Structures
1.
Amino acid sequence: MVEFFCVAVVFSAFSYFCAKFLYTMAKGKPRKTGLRQPHGSKTFDIVLALLTGVLLSAAWPTWGFAPLAFVGLVPILLLEDRIAQGGSGKLFWLSFLAFLVWNVATTWWVWNATPAATLAWVLNALFMVIVFNVFHLTKKKVCNNPWGNFFLVPYWMAFELLTYWWAAKWPWLNLGNVFSTCHHWVQWYEYTGVAGGTLWVLTVNILLTNVVLFFKSRATKPLLINIGVGLAVLLLPILVGKRIYNHYEAQGEDTEVIVVQQNCDPWNEQFDAAFYDKVIQDNINLSRPLVTPKTRFIVGSESAIQEGIWLHELDQARALKQLHSYLKEVPQAAFVIGGTTYEFVPRGMENDFAARPIDNMNHYYFSHNSALLIDSINVQHRNKSQLVVGVEAIPEWLGFLKNYSITMGIARGTLKGDPEAKVMTFGGHKVGVPICYESAFGEYVSTFCKKGADLLFVITNDGWWGHTPGYRQHFEFSKLRAIENRRCVARSANTGRSGFINQRGDVLQQTHYWVPDAIRETLKANTKVTFYAKHGDYLSRIAVYLSFVLLITLVSRVLIDSIRTKKSTPKATKKARK
């Protein structure tokens, strides 16, 4: 209750002081709606834009204070409202400044992997600006008053859905991710997914903006309505989330899992046969002391097997021979680990965008980033589907770069992914194994659970980013996947952070960064499919339909205004002549 009370006090105090501050700066004549507008200056506009960027950045995991997200968009919305009423200012460039600050301040660490990150920051900020300015135009044409601020909700949620679907996939800054550090507030993500958090953030920001605007106009009734609704929308989800958290009981069969963090430097190691053998042996040596008769799975990191395995010659791979030999000592367990795999392109598929020619031969092959489940006899595998743009996948419209990596220069060309998520089975269990970046895609991870996965194993190599917020943010997303699907998560990262997360999103154990380690935990293997896993990002799909309606309305208004202008022009000309 103390936490609940503090959030209410912060929200009320911010509402009052923000409203009072902006009211004192208001000048000029009231507009038709009775609201007074700040005169506006370039300095004041830039301060508001920067304030949005700073507040959203200060809310972001892992060092941020998540409740700041509830006020982060207020400055840019107030700026938009003044400009919509005829005030001066270039909204496009001001909003670009706000969103660029947010992108750079929260994901600057991508630079450690590639200088091409600057392009990612600019493009993502530009996409956000386009969405915000389309909202601005719709509001001006359709409903140019504080209630029109709600048009931002469907537009922004539709944009976030696109970040999962289109070629430039980058869901890292989707607003619902901000609550990973307050996961006990959002236990209802099992019904809504992260999109529910985005809806929450947008709605509270808009209601708070409207409080400020109606305070300035001294419109008492709408002011009280927005304050009351705002407090309810802010506090009720927290109350519901904490109640679910306190009453939720983990479900499923006890399953013992070991996670290995072998810790090798992805930048500076000498990649040769001796190194490949050492990495596998490190996995074996670290896990061996923790194995018990109850151990069912040992989980290693992404790309731990780097020798390159041809899928039609699995019995020839040195790493698989080492692991098969080890697992014969512990046949009750299976090893889940990442590796680079290859396969020849089937006849008729030579024109596939991911097909790579073999030098001096009339043959082509596919390269995969794979997860392998290895027991004492068999090997199963799945290939990563959600590929990192520029590193693992080149968009087809950049076909002239198809045989290159525009970033790290490591994953040459485009990898071939599976068309859909695939579960792997062992010992009566079905497991879903999201590989690295895939763990940021909520609906995609849920497809493993729809197909019967009772445990989720996230395997990744976060060493590319160094000791930065990047690997910590990535770890946080696994907490949200656990809640959305009510699945325990075992996470192995090459250099850290590795750990275990239960079905409520609590971290049971975690390793330290850059320390070789292995940890063991008994997890609940749950088979119940949540509402979100069944229906996916349905809130965002509804937002897409609403966005189409708004866009059609916008186009209709523009056309009608254009026709009216043409009809009125001759009359005005005749009057002028008389």
2.
Amino acid sequence: MALMEAKGGPRPAPGTLNQLFFDAVSKFNRPDALQVKRDGAYRPISHSEVADRVRHAARGLSSLGVRRGDRVAILSENRPEWAIADYACLSVGLTDVPIYPTLPADQVAYMLRDSGAVAVFVSNKMQAEKIREVRSQLPALKTVIGFDDISGLTNMSMAELEKRGSKGETRESIATYREDALTVKPDDLATIIYTSGTTGEPKGVMLTHDNIYSNVEASRKAIPFDGRDTGLSFLPLSHIFERMAGHYLMFATGTSIAYAESIDTVAANMLEVRPTLVLSVPRLYEKMFARILETALTGGFLKKKIFFWARGVAERWANEKLAGREPGALLAQQYAIAQKLVFSKLKARTGGRLRYFVSGGAPLAPDINKFFFAAGLVILEGYGLTETSPVIGVNTPENFRIGTVGKLVDGAEVKIAADGEILTRGPNIMKGYYNKPDATREAIEPDGWFHTGDIGELNDGFLSITDRKKDLIVTAGGKKVAPQPLENKVKTNKYVAQAVMIGDKRKFPSMLIVPNFDQLERWAAKRNIIWTDRAQLLRMPTIQAKIEKEVNKELEGTAHFEMPKRIGLLEHDFSIETGELTPTQKVKRKAIDKHYKALIDSLYEEAERSGFTDQHAIA
């Protein structure tokens, strides 16, 4: 039985991504449809050049004997060739399979084998080496195409593929290519996206043209674009958030897409590109927030005093605006001074033209969202999954409420089940999991309702996410603890870089903390604490007590049974390379439990030895 239900606006008319592509090329024809940094500067690529290269690559693929419905993989970092390869595949009716470039060869092999990919685009020598390593395991794979010229490891380069497709081209053949591309149907399979797998084996999510097209149409109506925007693309295009919003949506709205050189150069590339829109996962905003606080705290007495005065003023201003009131004259004047003295510098670091940040992929801590709003940098938080193409709901300038993921987009329906799980239905819901009919039946009910696995609630049409159903910690006493809101609170502390709650089926919850070592070591040095390495530092009772105090401070007011009773300190941050984070920076809880089992067990053994009892925890 559903406890709460909501609907977005009317369902968008069905369409295809090919239709979207051709419409954008003819409507906008910008000289900088795409931008890429080469030889130290960003170079523009026009809509007409993109269209020509897509057509040539598409005809080149057809000449290789691939047929409609065949699967072709893309193993690459974000770059113009990724977009060109994608549109080329779609325009000749192929289903493409994006693969994270950070994955090791064995995981790449699983996805290529499961999808039966007949060809794969690779960006560079490192990715080509992965294919060479596993090629004998891939009987369906016929062709490897390199975006770079990687002789000896590929069958041909992208340039050679495009040259092959341009041969014998006539006005008639161009018209025929377009006509054929537009015969692709809304229900045809566009892509198979493998979930990053926070648990278990990756599943191939089958998304049709209309699944994604309908989400583009709904999202462009929700967020205002004016055809003159510039976006910075740095989240992996293999992920549906960047694929739909940073790729198709940007292209459909005439937004210039500039590719960051890498995730590590985002700050520098922002200053060069000066984007008006930036999409990211919460980790970017968490790091920006931590860096801002660190700069303020290490800038001397006067600088620190000005920053915290400005933050206090901005907080009061934000409270008025978020309550729907206009700040009074004195507060407005103070806020203008705060903007000039402090927050204008923060805006300058984004390039000075930013209209909106957009956040997705994981919950954003409300305190961090409010800080940016108060500073005059609005983060529009949204929600969705790979299986929902992805957007179900998103905050907009007109409907904005911190702590929620906004109202539902057009075509989306949501109901909250009796156990709190969010169920959703609409044109954006996947066709199913590739080669996994049982998993598909488990996820999608006969009447179309998809089980998201997230716990949430609806208030005044705004959807809030409280946690992942599978992440809920149920203590030995039966108490349910939602870890993500608690983790997000703790991560706002300047001494904390990462936080993960543990304690499922244990007597009480505990927390693993990766300290912000810049702040912690500075604090220790001021107190004349001497250490030789970080492992030694973390073993010191004084340091343990300091972090426990900071965690308890952030969680003040939390229910007693939710409070972590033990804190474990970790020497290294989580990473994609160690398998502890997904490519979109989400924590893999099973990997954390496995990697740090000895430390976790010791926390509970220590509690047993010390005679720890907690009637609230085990009641």
